[in-house]
Automatic annotation (TrEMBL):
One of its GO terms (molecular function) is acetoacetate-CoA ligase activity. This is Acetoacetate--CoA ligase. Its EC number is 6.2.1.16. Residues 549-619 form the AMP-binding enzyme C-terminal domain. The keyword Ligase applies. The lineage of its organism: Bacteria, Bacillati, Bacillota, Bacilli, Bacillales. Residues 105-477 form the AMP-dependent synthetase/ligase domain. Keywords: ATP-binding, Ligase, Nucleotide-binding.
Length: 665
């Protein structure tokens, strides 16, 4: 892997690219209709959007011609957080805005799984199926405010069910079938759903996973269920008789008398869906987002920052248990064709997603930073194997994309390519910091802060800084903030999650540097930083340095204070097949960290481990591992059902016990 400095200029959009960008058309509209001339300068536009947040979001309402059955009384009730309300007394419906201008003959969704052919579904068929499922939900008694949950993969049927539920003003929530049984129960039981959607099983990495017994167990824990929609997915002739009060998918979409959707309009600040935190510690937090907040945010982010329109084919590799699924569905708001894939992105070959990009004429490929770095480490060269002429953008999230990941995309995917690294979260179901097609791409940097999101970097004392690493904070409200946590009657749980460090200011929990040219760098979670001698460093910087060692496949580092002013800083590494953690490799790791980070941040110890514990979305469990090594019980710091590999914890539990024994002696 060749070294590349953070901040190296890699790509600049040409004049034609900038002129055709959706954000340029929006700035032209602002000049014509609002007498606001930003001369196509994104920084000037962003400054206006965050210093006059009510004016900005009102312009978004007007620009996208939001349909409301009642006028709004006030754009923003207060700048105080939490508690700010938007577009009060307006009444809207998210699903209505997806279908309002659809082209019946155009492809709405392209979908494929490991064992199925590529399928194209038209807008006409999507609308027809949504009508039928709406009628099925109504027969189960679903009304505004009822919860509809899905224990289902990233498949066409899941999107139909979401659209039908939201069209009725019901509240949606979903979990991927690779979640553990108790993990799903912990989520769904909190919100007392009326209807559940489920599958009989799924296939991953070529292996079948039966899920009918799990679905039955979930049903037994949800006494509020009035019915279940059962989708045969693993087996065409699946036997759903063990389930109670269910209807199969074929029956649910049978011809019905209704010829059009009937939309239930809800107030702007009423719920659209409930997303759950990863649940690595305790029960997952049920985060409630509003219909209006999500509608405006997704229109803004996907139109301006992802630059989608009717000509695009938009893909993100995700499951229904990650907020990126909801974000992907939002692509339908722009008229884009969205692409679904269910399965292992490296099965049967590691080039699978690049093959999918060729087959679908994909224009935007969204994935995780870890997927890109794994392609880089495996020396893949998609440019040589596939026709990627339609691909204009690679978007990444989940963790910071290192500079080398940017460079690999330009060297081995496509020379003329816009790379849009993004950072946000389940908390807001969008990205705070993301791409912009009119701006240059610098290695390791996220291009810009999102329009209408007053993101700043704060010192611990609460002072904003530029070109220094600080806490990522939001100092003005934004419509996509959670309206509340489910069953958090006094708001204390939400307050403690975001507002306890800086009163009235959202603290997100990431380490952020804003450069003097207004681009951004994320250095990982701020509560997982390595603090040696009072000097902090983000874990992403350590991982980037370790990635230069060819024999190392992955790594995780934690910092455990010893109470005497020093700390135990172990680095756990997963070695590539056939490689061992020798003294020579340890020295090479130390040298890379000394050179690229600093001598003081060299780990005190190194250990080879078979695998690192990760969430179902692929995020490393830095904080839970740290707490386990501090002797805190695993039950109180990790929800095993939220992990993709719960057995990986056994090593760290054994390690903690042995360390405690040594310390006791």
């Amino acid at each position: 892997m060749n070294a590349i400095e953070e901040g190296t200029l890699l790509w600049e959009p040409g004049q034609k690219w900038r002129q055709q960008a959706n954000v340029s058309k929006y700035m032209d509209w602002l000049k014509q209709h609002k007498a606001l001339d930003f001369s196509h300068d994104y920084t000037a536009l962003w400054n206006w959007s965050v210093n006059y947040v009510a004016d900005f979001w009102e312009s978004i309402w007007e620009y996208f011609q939001i349909q409301s059955t009642a006028p709004y009384d006030e754009v923003l009730t207060s700048h105080h957080m939490p508690g700010a309300k938007w577009f009060t007394n307006s009444k809207i419906n998210y699903a209505q805005h997806i279908f309002r201008n659809y082209d019946a003959g155009k492809t709405a969704i392209i979908h494929q799984s490991e064992d199925s052919d590529l399928r194209h579904t038209s807008w006409k068929q999507l609308y027809k199926d949504t009508i039928a499922i709406q009628q099925t939900l109504k027969r189960f008694g679903v009304e505004k405010g009822d919860r509809v949950v899905a224990y289902a993969p990233n498949i066409y049927e899941s999107i139909v069910c979401f659209l039908a539920a939201s069209s009725l003003g019901a509240i949606w929530s979903s979990a991927s079938p690779d979640f553990g049984t108790q993990s799903v129960i912990d989520r769904f039981k909190q919100i007392e759903p009326k209807v559940m959607i489920t599958v009989d099983g799924y296939r991953y990495n070529g292996k079948p996973f039966e899920r009918l017994d799990v679905a039955k167990s979930i049903q037994a824990e949800l006494p509020t269920l009035a019915g279940t929609i059962a989708i045969p997915y693993l087996h065409q002739e699946a036997d759903f008789s063990p389930l109670t009060n269910h209807v199969t998918w074929d029956k649910a979409i049978e011809d019905c008398s209704a010829k059009s959707l009937v939309y239930t309009h809800v107030e702007f600040n009423e719920p659209l869906w409930i997303l759950f935190s990863s649940g690595t510690t305790g029960k997952p937090k049920p985060i409630v987002h509003s219909q209006g907040g999500m509608l405006l945010e997704h229109l803004k982010a996907l139109t301006f920052h992802v630059d989608l329109d009717e000509s695009d084919c938009f893909f993100w590799f995700t499951t229904t248990g990650w907020m990126m699924w909801n974000f992907l569905v939002g692509g339908l708001l722009t008229g884009s064709t969205i692409i679904l894939y269910d399965g292992n992105p490296a099965y049967p070959e590691k080039n699978r997603l690049w093959q999918l990009a060729e087959e679908t004429k994909m224009t935007v490929l969204g994935t995780s930073a870890s997927y890109i770095t794994s392609c880089m480490k495996d020396d893949l060269e998609p440019e040589k194997s596939f026709d990627l002429s339609h691909l204009k953008c690679i978007a990444s999230t989940g963790s910071p994309l290192p500079p080398e990941g940017f460079q690999w995309c330009y060297n081995h995917v496509k020379k003329d390519l816009w790379i849009a690294s993004a950072s946000g979260g389940t908390d807001v179901c969008t990205a705070f910091i993301l791409g912009m097609p009119t701006l240059p791409v610098y290695a390791g940097e996220l291009q810009c802060r999102g329009l209408g999101a007053k993101i700043e970097s704060f010192t611990e004392e609460g002072h904003p800084v530029i070109d220094e690493v600080g806490e990522l904070v939001l100092t003005e409200p934004i419509p996509c903030m959670p309206i509340y946590f489910w069953n958090d009657t006094d708001g204390s749980r939400m307050h403690d999650s975001y507002f306890s460090m800086y009163e009235g200011i959202w603290r997100h929990g990431d380490y952020l540097k804003i450069t003097d040219r207004q681009s951004c760098v994320i250095y990982g979670r701020s509560d997982a930083t390595i603090n040696r001698g009072g000097v902090r460093i983000g874990t992403s910087e350590i991982y980037r340095a370790v990635d230069y060692v060819p024999d190392v496949a992955d790594s995780l580092i934690v910092d455990i204070p010893d109470g005497n002013g020093d700390s135990f800083v172990p680095l756990f590494v997963v070695m590539k097949d056939g490689c061992e953690l020798t003294q020579e490799i340890k020295q090479e790791i130390k040298q890379q960290i000394r050179t690229q980070c600093s001598p003081r941040h060299v780990p005190t110890h190194m250990y080879a481990v078979p695998e690192l514990p990760k969430t179902l979305n692929g995020k490393k469990l830095e904080i839970p591992v740290k707490k386990i090594l501090q002797g805190i019980s695993v039950e109180s710091v990790v929800n095993a059902g939220s992990l993709s590999n719960p057995d990986s914890l056994k090593y760290f539990l054994k390690f903690a016990k042995e360390r405690q024994k040594i310390q006791a002696e």
